[in-house]
Structures are given as C-alpha cells and as structure tokens.
Amino acid sequence: MSTPPPDTSTLDPKQAERDAIRDVNADYKERFGFSDPETGYAYKAPKGLNQGIVESISDYKQEPAWMREFRLKSYRHFLERPTPQWGADLDQINFDDIHYFVRASEKASRSWDEVPEDIKKTFDRLGIPEAERKFLAGVGAQYESEVVYHQVREDLEQQGVIFVDMDTGLREHEELVRAHFATVIPENDNKLAALNSAVWSGGSFVYVPKGVKVELPLQAYFRINTENMGQFERTLIIADEDSEVHYIEGCTAPVYSTDSLHSAVVELIARPGARIRYTTVQNWSQNVFNLVTKRAIAEERATVEWVDCNLGSKVTMKYPAIYLMGEGAHGEILSIAFAGAGQHQDAGGKIIHAAPRTTSSIFAKSISKDGGRSTYRGLLEVAKGATQARSKVVCDALLLDPESRSDTYPTIRIDPPDANVGHEASVSKIGAEQLFYLQSRGLDEEEASKMIVNGFIEPVVKELPMEYAVELNRLIELQMEGSIG
Amino acid sequence: MSPPRQANLQTTNKKRKRTKNMADLEIRNLHVSVEGKQILRGLNLSVSKGEVHALMGPNGSGKSTLANTIMGHPALEVTEGEIVFKGEDMTEASPDERSRAGLFMAFQYPVAIPGVTVAKYLRTIINSHRESRGQDEIKIKDFAKLAREAMDLAEVPREFSSRYLNDGFSGGEKKRMEMLQLGLLRPEMAVLDETDSGLDIDALRTVAEGVNRYAGPEMGVLIITHYQRILDHVKPDFVHVMFDGRIVKEGGADLVGELEAKGYDWIKQEAGAAA
Q: Is B6 a member of any domain?
C-alpha cells in the first residue's frame, strides 16, 4: 500500500464542495426536480384568490351546498385572520401570485393504464407503481390539485376499508364525511387552515371498520408540477374501534425559481382501542412553502403516532398534534428536521392530555447545516382532571457548522399534581473528537459526518418501514453532500 | 562538515524515496504546538515492521501528543520536522489517508458514536479500506464470518454487533473494540496510546493480548505508556524515554526495569544536565 499522488483537481476544498453541490442538485433535478409540460390540462384557475375562485372550485366539483357554504365561510376567516408572525417569516408569500386550482386530469383512475401518459411517466420515474406492487396495501397519487390514481387492495375493500381521494369520499360517502370533516381542525383554527378549508382539493379519505387491521401501509404521494402552484390537500382518516392503519405520505416538486405553496389539513380520529400511525417523508424542492395543520384525536385506549420527517421545502411550519381524549390513550410524535442552506424548518409537536392515565412521548431531532435554521416548537399540556398522566419530551439539535442555527421553544403546562413528565433538550455540535476517531479508521471527513448524522437520527429512522428508512437515509446523505434543489 | 553542506544533505534526504536503511515509520525533528503552546521540541523516532517499541515518560512530557500527531489530529500543528511512513511524507496527510496507508492508533479513550451499530461501523471501515485498495465492497456473508471470528478472538460478545459503537461500554469493552479493529484492519504500524495511569488492569491486559496476537513481521508497534504495567505482558525490543517534548534516553527492554526502580527523576536530571 502506498499513498497515491495528490489529485490536484480536488485540492481546493471549496471547489470540491461546489462540484458536490452541483452534482447533488443535478441529482435532485433528475430524480424529483424535473417538470412536465402542462399539455392536456383540464383546467387551470388564474392566479390569485377571490370569492369567485372559491365558488368555481366548488362548482367544478359539483359539491353539495353544505360544502360550498363551508368553503365560503372559511374564505371569510382566511381574509380576517392575520398572517402568523410568531414563527418563520411568512410575509414573503404573495397570496395573489398563486394558482389555487389546477386540474391535470379529468378523473381519478383505478388503473395506472388509465392515467394520462405524461403523468404516469412522472410517477413511474418516482417509483410509485413499483412500490405499490412491492409493499403497499393501497396507493393514492395526487398531481397538482387532484388525485389521478387511487387503488386499494381488493381484500381490504371487501372488509369495508375505504381508501379514496377526498373528492370521491365526499361524493360516495357524504354522510360519513360530513359527520367528521373539520371536527378535529375547524375552519377558523388558523389562517392557513382557513385557506385550506376554502380551496381544498384532493387528499385522502380513509375509513377502517371495527376490528380490521390493515397490515401493510397505505401510501399517498403528492406531486406539484406547475410553477406558482398552491396545493391544498385535505385528508381525513377514521380508524374505528380496535382497528389499525398505517398511512404514509411522500412529497416532491420540480425546482423552480419562484415559490409554490403547500398547505394541507390532516385530521385523524382514532376510536377506542384503535391505532393510527401517520408517516411523512417531506422532500419538497426548496421553493415550496410548506404550512400544514395536522391534528389527531385519540379516544379510550387508542394510540396515535406521527412520524414526521422534514427534509425539503424553503420554509416548513408544522406541529402535528394529538388530543388524548379517552382514558388510557397513548400518543407519540417522532420528528426529524434537516435544514440546509436557505431552509427554515420550524417543526415540532403538540400533545394534550385530556383524560386520566394517558401517556405520550415527543422525540424530536433536528440537524442544521450550511446556515440552515431549525426550530423545535412544542407543547405538552396535561389538563385538569387528566390524572396519572405520563409523558416524556426529548428534543436534540445537531449543528454541523457555526453558521447554522437551532432554536427550541418547548412549552409545558401541567395542572394535575400527580403528572409524571420528563423533559430533556440538548444542542450539540458535531464533535471534533468523533470525526477524528472515524477518520483515523479510514473514513473521509464527509463519510464520517454522514455516519454521525445517521447515528443521530437512528432512533427515529428505526421506527420507519425499511423502504422508507433506506430512502430517508439516502435523502439525508444527499443533504449532507450539499443543498438539494 | 560545514553548515551549508549539511542543509543540502537534508534536502536531498527529504526528496529521496524509500531506501534500504530507512525505517517504515520515521519521525524527524518533530515540533508540534497546540493552540500556540509548544509540546514537542525536535523529536526523532524510527519504528520498522516486526519491531515492538515502548515510549515512556513522565506526565506532561508529550507522549499523547506524539500519538495523536502520528495519526493527524487536526488540533495539533506541526511547526517543524516531518513524519514519513513507508517513504511517503505524511506530515500534512488527513487522518483517513494515514489510516488507509496502514497507520493505526488505538485510542486511550475511544469515543462513542450513538446510533451507529458496531456491525454497521465495522463494515463501513472495512469497505473504506477495501475501496482504497481498489477492491469491491465486502459481501455481507463474508463480512459476517470475518466479524464473528474477529469478535471471538478479541473476546467481544457477538451481541455487541447490534449495540451502538462504544456507547455505554465499560473501559475494558472499549479496549476490546479497539483490539478488534486492529485485528480487522491489520495495519502495518500500530500506535497504542496508553498514557493514562487510571486504566484498570483488565483493560491493559486486553491491549497487551491484542498486541501479542497481531504483532509479527508484518506489523510495527509503538506502545506509549506512563507505567511499565503493560510491559509486563508485552516485551519491547526498544525502549525510548521522553521528557519535555524530546526523546532523552533509549535502550532495550532492561530500561523498563530501571525506570520502574528509579522513577523518572534521574532522567529529568540527566536531561537537565545535557541541555
């Protein structure tokens, strides 16, 4: 063995870094960042929002009157509410420069063959049909405002499992939808939830009957193609008594120089003894504002778990919440945020104990690199009467360089004296001694950093199904090599 | 010899590639500072494959600094002199380049890498070395066999493969992990940093057994230690005594006993008289 002569082309570390970033950008562009022509689009609303646009969305979908009323009421709330000023900078969003409704295809297909060729090609490139064949119980694929493909395995359908896009859900299961829609997140909850309630389109409606356990995950895949697009999907999942379901969503978008807005509302209802796990791998390109309201209700003995991984977007504000409403309910939030150059990940979670003997945990990990900023914002509340509650909150931040930033805002409010609540927070810099140790065994600095970061997020990653763990590790590696998008 | 000529000769030596009479690891006139403070002040040392060297000295003489400098710790600045390994100047090389060239340091206090399992870690470092030799990644099956054998040999329980590296390990367990890696990477030059006097006797014995297991014509060993205890188990061919950033006395294994009997004070006095 001998040391090879130094390769002078990579001697300048700055140049090497620029090369790496260029390669990675090329990689995101190739894998996710491509855009397709808008040929054959059925409808594209002009930019901007007014009452006429809201009405036309409702007309287009031929909705019942109560939904149209709901939209208009929500629109008024949206106008009245100020833009939140307590978190990331949202004043950069120009609400008049966004297309609020874009229909790429006339209908949601149940066969990939029926999906328009261009769109099918997109999802082929993203590997969705293949994933469906391999390890999923059902797939929904949303392209722009609407779901273009939806399928659930026949055996589950026979057991009464409903997994359709929300528009279809409203048409075919109107009473079920009407009884639950906006009961967890009302239209006046916050400005962005009001916006979603006014212009929502797409998303999933899931109902799992009593006692039915859906072993394989249901997956929804969200894709924005159009520039200056607003995507406002609406998801409602109801797990009836003693049932189980795991729902996974993934998101990507092309790389554009102008901004898009993604503002979803997700409501989960876990009936007594039910179990819902909701996993997100968010990989929007870095021109997307991702402002999402997610909330769950857990009744007696029910369990709700949010696994929330935020890697992409320009700005994310998202704090999945769990209301433990029934005795013995359990809630868990696992959160990973990775903020690279130009990104602000303002994420966290909220858990409210509202019944006796409820238990919960929040486990948040954030990584900041190249001047990126991550914020943990959390709430743990044990309300009056929620006796013998137990909870643990751990939030760890890892800073990869001195330019990056991490802030933690944990709020804890406890009423009953017998609550057992633990809270730990740490901020660490990537350790020089750890790097030296790994390098002294032959890993170069980048490999060594990746290994430390992968180890840091491992407690969350190991909760993911294998396919997603692999994907997440890969995305983290791409982030480590440079900025994506 | 006139001074200009000497300077010339040194330049020629520097440029010359490996020669017959050059040791595998040559440390020449090494000056090292940490945060502006001079620690090593012109240290010379040669170690070749097949030899076991012991470097001893009182606390604060710069022993640990030497070990870390050989491995390229980024906080240590070489202000003068050079480290040559197998005829290649390694003075400015990164720690990973040194490792892939065949240098190894067993850490006094191995650090923990939470979240990274022993198995994943070992496979990664093996593959990194294979890659530098132009070999493909090791097959999972081959790795499993290799790792099992090495773990058994180093007396690391097999269930450790799913534990996080050094995370919550005892002092002795960490040392066994270091010896396990020595066995897997098979370096040509191993530096063992055992400067701390607080190590328990089991940990020392583990290191000694590891050295005895792998030492041979294909590996040179430099044991850096304060006390002679580890040298009860490993017999050095050469002993060097360090004081104030330099080597001030050299000899054979019998020097160990002398140091044990007389302590370091006489060395300090001798060094003081010489200066």
A: no
pLDDT in tens, B34-78: 999 999 999 999 999 999 999 999 888 999 999 999 999 999 999
pLDDT for B185 equals 95
Split at pLDDT 50, 70, 90, the class of B83 is very high
Q: Which tokens is A190 given?
A: 């916050």
CB of B83 within 8 Å of any CB in chain A?
no
Residue-averaged pLDDT of chain B = 88
Stretch 70-109 of chain A: residues touching chain B, C-beta under 8 Å: none
Residue in chain A nearest B73 by alpha carbon:
A436
Q: Which residue has the higher pLDDT, A20 or A77?
A: A77
Residue B186 lies in domain: 11-274
- Name the amino acid, one letter, at A98: I
CA distance A436 to chain B (A): 7
Residue B5 lies in a domain: no
Query: H-type helices in B37-94, by residue range?
Result: 63-71
Q: How many Cβ pairs closer than 8 A exist between chain A and B?
A: 93
Phi, psi (degrees; rounded to nearest 5) at B81: 90, -175
Please count the structural domains in chain B: 1
Give A374-402 as a DSSP string.
EEEEEEEEE-TT-TT-EEEEEEEEEESST
Chain A residues close to B132, C-beta within 8 Å: 1, 442
Q: B6: alpha, beta or left, given left = phi > 0 and alpha = psi -120 to 50?
A: alpha
Query: What's B172's domain CATH number?
Result: 3.40.50.300
| B112 assigned to some structural domain | yes
Q: Using N-to-C axis directions, what is the helix angle for A432-439 and A445-461, rounded to 10°?
A: 110
Average of pLDDT values for B195-213? 78
The reply to whether residue A2 touches residue B107, judged by beta carbons under 8 angstroms, is no
Task: Flag whether B1 is in a domain.
Answer: no
Q: pLDDT digits over A158-167, tens only?
A: 999 999 989 9
- Residue B28: pLDDT over 50: yes
pLDDT digits (tens, 9 = 90+) for A111-161: 777 777 777 777 777 777 777 776 677 777 888 777 778 788 888 889 999
